[in-house]
Amino acid sequence: MANTGWDEFEIGAMLRSFDGKIDDIAGTLQEDRAYSPNNSFVASVADWRIEKPVFNKDYCIDCQFCWIYCPDISIIARDKKMIGIDMDHCKGCGICVEVCPTNPKSLLMFPEQAEEEAELANWPAKDEEK
Amino acid sequence: MSEMKKIKNLKEFSTSADRFEGANLLCPGCAHSIIVREILNATNDDLVLGASTGCLEVCTAVYPYTSWDASWIHIGFENSSTAVAGAESMYNALKTKGRLKQPDRNPKFVAFGGDGASYDIGFQWISGCMERNHNMMYVVLDNEVYANTGGQRSSSTPIGGSNTTSPAGTHSYGEKHNKKDMMGIMAAHNIPYTAQVAPNKWKDMVKKIQKGFATEGAVFINAVSPCTTEWKFDPKDTMALTDLSTDSLVFPLYEVIDGKEWNITYRPKNVVPVEEYLAAQGRFKHLFKDQYKHMIKEWQERVDENWAYLNRREEARV
Fold first, then answer.
1. A110 vs B: CB within 8 A
2. Domain housing A10
3. B203-261, pLDDT tens digit by residue?
4. A62/A3 same-domain check
């Protein structure tokens, strides 16, 4: 399928999201799904990013604002906890940082090439003025 | 499976397994996918989806990829509403004949369209679906412009916006005509449920969507979707702009039941002046020049008038 040219493509095409049959998609988490090569989940838009979000779980209060307002399904929340960022699908828009309510923020934007561990070590302190 | 999904708070909501996938090609900071996620996550039932040509369609179905984990179809610019209505009719026919393979499942039928596909091109088709009262939901992702084709004005574009086909300059303040009152038109079809939603008020939105899913008959949803590319603001400010649009009452959140019962569902504690909403967007930049400053006052008056009208409708119950 992936090697089919555009003119070999049948009219009225159907793309299958999964390999095989999933009976209850709404009850199956992403890691348990058998994605087909046609699902955009297997693709990456990581090269769109100029800045990347870095997550500091020390300050996170699991409010899930970032989860609900992420346009790219890149905030991974499991068991009501925010556990990380899906860097294959994050486009670096920065909405998660804007909606983060903690002080200091538990998500911040850094240049794409920044070292995550160095940034975490130099995390800004609490801003008293707020 | 057909009972309503219980969503009390955001933590509970965050346990949902998304049926809309990443690595779609929507712009960074696009509100479309936030709205789509909130709608799809509002139910655990099977979904039959359709999308009209528009940003959402071209960005989520780029060969060889699909971003949808549910039955999804695209046909043309105008007919996502009728395609989904057709699927719903077929489902009902099979149900009547007892030929459904899994009769215990309770699929929901949802059609998506941009404002161009809904306010202009697909208007007649949507009107037909609403008039025939199919058991489906039609969702408009209202970004007030043909964003996919390069920012031409649509009949949803408000007065004063600068777009490629209605540019602002020394002789023009941009778009000359006011936004079509689609909510009023759809409510006048006397359909069971019409609602205006915004992604920043997720609880209000999920409540309305669940109410829509529980309704037997046609449901029309108008969702405000700030467009970072055509409204010209920074992608990170999408939610801030949505807040401005609901708090300045430019997009009041309300619902209409059976075309009679108008309910305002969100009354901002601090109403923001419309000027702040306009100032946050590049497409209204020229309104702050001396030449066009009178437009801002007219904007405020129009928004106030509309809010007073909604309040009167709510009170009158007609």
1. no
2. 1-43
3. 999 999 999 999 999 999 999 999 999 999 999 999 999 999 999 999 999 999 999 99
4. no
8 Å CB contact of A40 and B33: no
Alpha helices, DSSP H, located in B17-122: 31-40, 55-60, 80-97, 115
Q: How many independent structural domains does chain A possess?
A: 2
Locate the DSSP E strands across B136-204. Answer: 137-142, 193-197
User: Are the C-beta atoms of B110 and B192 separated by less than 8 Å?
Assistant: no
What whole-number distance in Å separates Cα of residue B9 and Cα of residue B27?
28
Query: pLDDT tens for residues B39-69?
Result: 999 999 999 999 999 999 999 998 889 999 9
Q: How far apart, in whole angstroms, are the C-alpha atoms of residue B253 and residue B268?
A: 10
Instruction: Domain count for chain B, please give it.
Output: 1
- Amino acid found at A100: C
- Distance in angstroms (rounded) separating the CA atoms of residues B300 and B304: 6
Specify whether A37 is located in the same domain as A50. Answer: no
Judge if A51 and A23 occupy the same domain: no
Nearest partner of A85 among A59, A111, A106, judged by Cα: A106
**Rounded mean pLDDT of chain A?**
90
Can you give the residue range of the structural domain that contains B80? 10-316
How would residue B279 be classed by pLDDT, with cut points 50, 70 and 90?
very high
Helices (H), A8-71: 65-69
Tell me which residue has tokens 């109403």.
B271
Within-domain flag for B2: no
Other Cβ atoms within 10 Å of A80 Cβ, number: 15
**Is B159 exposed, middle or buried (CB count within 10 Å of its CB: 0-12, 13-18, 19+)?**
middle
Half-sphere exposure of B44 (CA within 13 A, CB side): 17
Coil, helix or strand at residue A26: helix
Closest residue in B to A109 (Cα) is: B236
Same-domain check for residues A66 and A87:
yes
| Partner-chain residue, chosen from A9, A25, A74, that has the shortest CB–CB distance to B70 | A25
Nearest neighbour of A41 by CB, restricted to B23, B199, B237: B23
